[in-house]
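Postdoc handover notes: sequence design on the structure in folder B. Input tokens:
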């Protein structure tokens, strides 16, 4: 019994209590947004809110209060440039109270978004628990937060090493404490907001970002367009249409995209001929969805609720990769008469000289449609359905691969009068003769003057070939009058006395060797020479409303007109210099039976005949427009099937198989 009592006493003597230590130290950060600006602006320019919100404040952006900007009811416009967000930061202890004794660096990040610019915009030094700073970030959309963290600063790398910059002294201990700002609501992305270029280089601002465009009903209310108040599509639901499929994916167009005023995008070239409407012909509202294989279950004309994937630039074309999509309506489940009911709303835009980038006068880049990277008329139509009219197919296929490596050097404009290497070049480089061959073939120079040539190695590798576009001239002759400044009118009166001649000269002098298109409303005599009236040896009799194409010789720069009928009144003629503009075309997938590389003198009679038909005809072609930065020309039209091509046979000829004649109205 005594032993039991002793054990009990010893047991009680070993029991004691100890209070658990209370947590202390840094717990989080309180982050207050003080301003949202476009980076590198002076004076600083606030990121605008969408038009619907600005309208509540009289349409004045500066009148929108800071605490309203970026809320659900007042979305921030999707920025095309880097954004700078001003912050006020307060360290908070683990009890949620201000922590005045915290001193150290805190790093920034944004979700979504990517930090950019100097390191000083990626962290702030807190002193006595407080700091102010600015974070520079890009690729923002939807609901966004700025995070402030007790973590190392995000750095950049090059060649496996950290890029040096203004980084803080790393403290001995990090707590991983974090805090985030209020939600900043930007617009949800549309195809147009992703496609509009940034910094004048035709590149999307969102390359490498995973995005969802559109919204299915189960995910919330329909995504609507945020356009200018007077835009007819303002407030309309985003409507995604499949306009075509190919072996690697499909094309999508947003039918209700906003108009884009010409010149409103940084980097656009202003000297091009302006659009009569004041808006770009395209709305930056189409995109190629690269599926790595044919998109089973999709057909042209289907509607989608949404598309999602990683935004990438491939050959200068913006596309979504690793995609997913949500089908809204399958038109092939409807009667066949309704299969095109949505496709009929996506009318192809005709590519003409104005869209190719013609100025008022001929220029060295005329032969290459859309050569200038600042040509947003073409960029706004990327991946959209377009139409080229009355194009001619090549008659010469020339391999410029002199060294047999299966590649041919591309070329770039060199000054205002020539073409050469896209950078420095050595005279001994084997690319030099290849490049000159490519220049001459593509532009119709040197041995290819007066011929339509395509580089054969490029054709063999990619199936793309050069076609010549409809030349500038009188619209009554079916020619391109999209740049009126390039059309010159001659009004030639008849002679006062019968049996005499009266010649009227062209108001403009033309370049020696230029090809001219001449069309007159009445029978006329046409002569070619200099400023002094030429003799009768150059006279050409031109029937009324008939097109005459003539290449000027080295001593000819002026065109002279005289009526054939002295009693027929004034003859009005339209003169225009042929720009010999080219664009690329690919038909191998759409019309595999169309033989483009052919010989009109083939020993096979049928092959020779079909080649004569092809080379003697002109064609209207509808297709999707793709940008290939290394190609010359840069822009490629991709028809979907043989119904996207039709033919105007040459005199006494037919259309080549399997192309059908164009139906003229």
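Designed sequence:
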């Amino acid at each position: 019994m005594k032993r039991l009592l002793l054990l009990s006493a010893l047991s009680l003597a070993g029991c004691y209590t100890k209070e658990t230590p209370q947590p202390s130290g840094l717990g989080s950060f309180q982050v207050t947004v003080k301003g949202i600006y476009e980076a590198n602006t002076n004076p600083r320019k606030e990121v605008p809110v969408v038009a619907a919100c600005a309208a509540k404040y009289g349409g004045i952006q500066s009148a929108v209060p800071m605490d309203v900007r970026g809320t659900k009811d007042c979305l921030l416009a999707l920025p095309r440039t880097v954004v700078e967000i001003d912050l006020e930061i307060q360290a908070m202890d683990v009890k949620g109270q201000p922590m005045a004794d915290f001193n150290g660096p805190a790093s920034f990040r944004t979700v979504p978004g990517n930090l950019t610019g100097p390191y000083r915009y990626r962290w702030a030094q807190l002193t006595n628990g407080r700091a102010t700073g600015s974070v520079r970030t890009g690729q923002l959309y939807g609901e966004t937060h700025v995070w402030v963290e007790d973590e190392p600063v995000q750095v950049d790398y090059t060649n496996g090493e950290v890029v040096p910059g203004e980084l803080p002294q790393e403290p001995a201990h990090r707590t991983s404490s974090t805090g985030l700002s209020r939600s900043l609501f930007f617009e949800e992305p549309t195809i147009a907001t992703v496609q509009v270029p940034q910094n004048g280089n035709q590149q999307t601002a969102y390359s490498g970002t995973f995005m969802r465009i559109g919204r299915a009903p189960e995910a919330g209310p329909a995504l609507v367009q945020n356009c200018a108040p007077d835009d007819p599509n303002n407030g309309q639901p985003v409507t995604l249409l499949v306009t075509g499929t190919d072996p690697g994916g499909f094309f999508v167009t947003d039918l209700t995209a906003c108009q884009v005023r010409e010149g409103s995008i940084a980097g656009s070239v202003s000297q091009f001929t302006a659009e009569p409407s004041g808006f770009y012909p395209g709305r930056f509202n189409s995109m190629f969805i690269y599926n790595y294989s044919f998109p089973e279950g999709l057909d042209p004309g289907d509607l989608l609720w949404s598309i999602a994937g990683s935004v990438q630039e491939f050959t200068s074309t913006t596309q979504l990769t690793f995609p997913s999509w949500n089908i809204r309506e399958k038109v092939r489940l409807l009667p066949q008469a309704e299969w095109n009911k949505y496709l009929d709303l996506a009318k192809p835009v005709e590519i003409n000289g104005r869209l190719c980038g013609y100025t008022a006068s001929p220029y060295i880049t005329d032969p290459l449609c859309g050569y200038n990277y600042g040509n947003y008329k073409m960029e706004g139509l990327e991946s959209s359905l377009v139409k080229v009219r009355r194009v001619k197919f090549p008659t010469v296929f020339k391999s410029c691969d002199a060294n047999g490596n299966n590649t041919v050097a591309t070329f770039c404009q060199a000054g205002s009068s020539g073409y050469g290497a896209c950078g420095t070049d050595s005279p001994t480089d084997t690319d030099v003769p290849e490049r000159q061959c490519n220049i001459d073939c593509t532009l119709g120079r040197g041995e290819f003057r007066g011929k339509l040539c395509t580089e054969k190695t490029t054709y063999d590798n990619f199936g793309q070939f050069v076609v010549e576009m409809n030349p500038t001239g009188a619209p009554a002759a079916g020619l391109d009058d999209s740049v009126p400044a390039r059309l010159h009118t001659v009004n030639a009166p008849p002679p006062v006395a019968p049996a005499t001649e009266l010649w009227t000269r062209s108001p403009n002098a033309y370049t020696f060797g230029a090809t001219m298109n001449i069309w007159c409303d009445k029978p006329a005599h046409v002569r070619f020479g200099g400023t002094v009236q030429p003799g009768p040896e150059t006279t050409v009799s031109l029937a009324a409303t008939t097109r005459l194409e003539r290449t000027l010789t080295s001593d000819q720069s002026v065109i002279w007109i005289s009526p054939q009928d002295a009693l027929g009144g004034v003859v009005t003629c339209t003169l225009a210099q042929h720009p010999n503009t080219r664009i690329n075309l690919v038909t191998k997938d759409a019309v595999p039976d169309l033989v483009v590389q052919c010989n009109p003198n083939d020993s096979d009679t049928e092959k020779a005949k079909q080649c004569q038909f092809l080379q003697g005809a002109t064609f209207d072609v509808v297709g999707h427009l793709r940008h290939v930065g290394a190609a010359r020309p840069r822009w490629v039209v991709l028809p979907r099937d043989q119904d996207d091509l039709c033919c105007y046979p040459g005199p006494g000829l037919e259309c080549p198989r399997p192309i059908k004649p164009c139906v003229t109205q």
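Context for whoever picks this up: The helical segments are 2-13, 51-55, 191-195, 353-356, 376-379, 431-443, 456-462, 605-616. Don't rerun without checking with the PI first.
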